[in-house]
Design a protein that fits this description.
This protein is of the alpha+beta class. The chain has a single domain, classed as tt1808, chain A. It has 5 helices and 13 strands. A 6-stranded mixed sheet has the order 4-7-8-9-10-11, with helices on both faces. A hairpin with a 5-residue loop joins strand 2 (32-35) and strand 3. The longest helix is centred in the first third of the chain and has 21 residues, at 49-69. The chain is globular, with a radius of gyration of 16 Å.
Amino acid sequence: MLSSPLVVRIPPSMPMTDEQFFEFCQVNRDLHIERNKSGEILIMPPTGSETGNRDARIIQQLMNWTDEDGTGIAFSSSTGFKLSTGAERSPDASWMKLERWNALSLEQQQKFAPICPDFVVELRSPFDNLQPLQEKMREYMREPGIQLGWLIDRKHHKVYIYRPDRPEECLDQPTTLSGDPVLPGFILDMSKVW
């Protein structure tokens, strides 16, 4: 059984402002909520425990590298970003150069930052439909500032690599993933993810 987000459509006569959407998300903190460029609210089902553990392993490795490297800031799956299309998205893991992060105001940093990270990761659970995740990755690749994206498909042991203005690349059962040159020296150990 594949899982899909619950889609809540807002009537055009009642558009939700960015401030109202942020408040809506804060009032419903137990839900994983995104908003697409059409203004539809997407309520994602929680991941299973195993997928949550694997996502934490990705974030752990990214955070460790970020601490050592010192040139950027990493984010967990509960972080929302406002894209140029108007969509608010929450990648499973992400990273941004410090100079881009520091160019934002404190208020922008405290809410859904109006910026797309340099690097995003989406982790497919065994119950996720692949196509919406691929479309989400393509949406990221159209954003200013994005440089690299990984869609990790644990079910089939594949990794789809996305870069702006380049064709999608698919790796079959890689043992590691290299973030070079966007994240110099970052190597994701896939034995902790599979």
